[in-house]
Amino acid sequence: MSGNPLSRRSVLVGGAVLAAAAPALPASAAELRGVGRPTRPGELFTLGVASGEPLPHGVVLWTRLAREPLAEDGLGGMPDKEIKVDWEVATDERFRHVVQHGHVDAVPRSAHSVHVEANGLRPGTEYFYRFRARGELSPVGRTRTAPAPGALGDLTMCFASCAHYGEGFFTAYRRMAEDEPGLILHLGDYQYEYAGNPSKDVREVHGPETVTLANYRQRHAQYKTDPDLQLAHSVAPWLVVFDDHEVENNWADEIPEAKSETQGQAFLQRRRDALQAYYENMPLRWESMPNGINMQLYRRRAWGSLANFHMLDTRQYRDDQAYGDGNKPDGPDLHVPRRTITGIDQEGWLLDGLRESRARWDVLGQQVWFAQMDHDPGPAKVLPMDAWDGYQASRQRVKAGFDAARNVVVLTGDVHSHWAADIKADFDDPDSRNVAVELTTTSITSGRDGAETNEGGDKIKAANEHVHFYSARRGYVRTRITPNQVRADYRVLPYVSKSGAPATTAASFVTQDRDPGLHAV
Question: What is the pLDDT of residues 426-455, one digit of tens each?
Answer without folding.
Answer: 999 999 999 999 999 999 999 999 999 999
